[in-house]
């Protein structure tokens, strides 16, 4: 086989492998947003990377990790626990300085997701690039109003370091 033909075959195979890896990465992000803890664990067992972030220059991703996506969308606190047990970085920040706790406080409708992150040691004193704190976002989430999760966030934010 000529060098040029070998290079073309290699590039075609490399491109297919890269696209396949990208598809698997996207599949894992989709899974953590709505999947069961068992499905998430199975994907981790197959090699899904719990700390691989979406590209920072991706307008949809902005550096989000699987834990951030789960904290934002998955209402099952056990899904969060699976990711944490697998080594997900609880303090990873995206392009805006948001952590998984910020996403949960801002968007998740299940206060137990916030409680799970707090119990795992998430920092409730994080301030993002806009000067907003976790508590600022939590207070605007109607699902957290009057809950133990909001009270625990308030207490954690008030503690001295």
Descriptive overview:
Mean pLDDT is 86; it is low at 6-23. The chain has 161 residues and is mainly alpha-helical. The relative contact order is 0.10. It is globular, with a radius of gyration of 19 Å. The chain has a single domain (3-158), classed as Ankyrin repeat-containing domain (Serine Threonine Protein Phosphatase 5, Tetratricopeptide repeat, Alpha Horseshoe), CATH 1.25.40.20. The longest helix has 32 residues, at 3-34. 57% of the residues lie in helices and 0% in strands. It is built from 8 helices and no strands. The chain has helices at 3-34, 37-45, 66-73, 77-85, 100-107, 111-119, 134-139, 148-158. Helix 3 packs parallel to helix 5 (100-107).
Number of strand segments: 0
CATH superfamily: Ankyrin repeat-containing domain
Strand content: under 5%
Number of domains: 1
Q: What is the helix content?
A: 55-70%
Please give the CATH architecture.
Answer: Alpha Horseshoe
* Oligomerization: single chain
SSE class: mainly alpha
Q: Which key terms come to mind for this protein?
A:
161 residues, mainly alpha, Serine Threonine Protein Phosphatase 5, Tetratricopeptide repeat, 8 helices, 0% strand
Detail the topology: elements first, then pairings:
Blueprint: H1 3-34, H2 37-45, H3 66-73, H4 77-85, H5 100-107, H6 111-119, H7 134-139, H8 148-158
In short:
With 161 residues, the chain is mostly helical. The chain has helices at 3-34, 37-45, 66-73, 77-85, 100-107, 111-119, 134-139, 148-158.
């Amino acid at each position: 086989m000529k060098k040029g033909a070998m290079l073309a075959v290699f590039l075609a195979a490399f491109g297919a492998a890269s696209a396949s890896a990208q598809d698997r990465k996207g599949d894992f992000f989709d899974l953590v947003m709505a999947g069961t803890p068992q499905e998430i664990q199975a994907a981790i067992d197959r090699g899904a990377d719990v700390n691989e972030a979406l590209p920072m220059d991706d307008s949809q991703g902005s550096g989000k990790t699987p834990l951030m996506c789960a904290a934002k969308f998955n209402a099952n606190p056990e899904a969060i626990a699976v990711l944490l047990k697998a080594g997900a970085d609880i303090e990873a920040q995206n392009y805006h300085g948001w952590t998984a706790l910020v996403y949960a406080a801002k968007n998740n409708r299940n206060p137990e997701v916030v409680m799970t992150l707090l119990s795992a040691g998430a920092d409730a004193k994080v301030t993002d690039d806009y000067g907003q704190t976790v508590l600022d976002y939590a207070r605007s989430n109607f699902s957290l109003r009057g809950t133990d999760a909001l009270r625990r966030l308030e207490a954690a934010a008030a503690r001295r370091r």
